[in-house]
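Colleagues,

For the teaching module next term, I've prepared a clean inverse folding example: a structure given as tokens, and then the sequence designed for it. I'd like students to try predicting residues themselves before seeing the answer, so please don't circulate the second half yet.
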């Protein structure tokens, strides 16, 4: 359903994205193929789309959060709001995965490179690990900065208080493996509690979030350092998928 009001600045961003999509449609096929790798153009069309989808995902996140915080959990509302939110997150992940500026892989590679000549690797991640690898340690720091800011320890009952998500990024891989997974964990817990006829078990939710944060921040999974999908194709698909959210913007658009 389209919203009844859209902030003027968001209309400007949406309409700018629309003009880029239209420019792609007006290009001859040979030029479209050339512009697929033309970084200033690609960055702009992807970044504008990212801004548009981020606005919608913020609304979706609020709706899902409200559903999980209700004293009387409702399965239909939980599943509906979560479905919309998770689909948006996955779509943002796919979009930003088409431009090198929004990839997680280079960030982690650079962090590991710093660890090749380091010898002050701090404490091990796990009680049984007595000789932490410096590259892993630097990657762990890079992952913590993006997510929990303060380190989450092994078997923690909650993520430490502080600026959680303070340095969050709309980066391909980070969205899919950290934020989508975290929202899925919340949904699963809320559905278990709904089935039991009780409100959300926040203590268990906190424990599961901490477990997820620990696993992701101590992981050494590799992520792509180059886009694999066509940015113009993905941008166009997502523009038409979500344009109804900005129908009011198009009413006043004369172009």
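(Answer key — instructors only)
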């Amino acid at each position: 359903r389209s919203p009844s009001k859209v902030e003027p600045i968001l209309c400007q961003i949406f309409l700018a994205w629309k003009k880029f999509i239209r420019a792609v449609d007006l290009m001859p096929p040979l030029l479209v193929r050339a512009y697929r790798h033309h970084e200033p153009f690609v960055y702009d069309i992807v970044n504008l789309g990212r801004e548009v989808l981020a606005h919608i995902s913020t609304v979706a996140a609020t709706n899902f959060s409200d559903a999980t915080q209700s004293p009387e959990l409702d399965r239909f509302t939980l599943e509906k709001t979560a479905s919309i939110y998770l689909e948006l997150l996955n779509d943002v992940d796919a979009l930003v995965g088409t431009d090198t500026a929004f990839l997680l892989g280079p960030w982690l590679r650079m962090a590991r490179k710093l660890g090749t000549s380091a010898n002050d690797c701090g404490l091990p991640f796990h009680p049984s690990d007595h000789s932490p690898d410096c590259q892993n340690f630097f990657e762990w720091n890079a992952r913590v900065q993006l997510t929990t800011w303060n380190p989450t320890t092994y078997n923690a009952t909650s993520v430490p208080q502080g600026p959680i998500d303070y340095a969050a990024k709309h980066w391909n891989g980070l969205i899919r493996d950290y934020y989508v997974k975290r929202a899925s964990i919340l949904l699963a817990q809320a559905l278990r509690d709904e089935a039991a006829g009780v409100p959300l078990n926040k203590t268990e939710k906190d424990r599961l979030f901490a477990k997820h944060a620990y696993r992701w921040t101590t992981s050494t999974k590799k992520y792509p350092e180059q886009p694999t999908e066509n940015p113009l194709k993905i941008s166009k698909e997502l523009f038409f998928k979500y344009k109804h959210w900005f129908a009011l913007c198009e009413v006043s658009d004369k172009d």
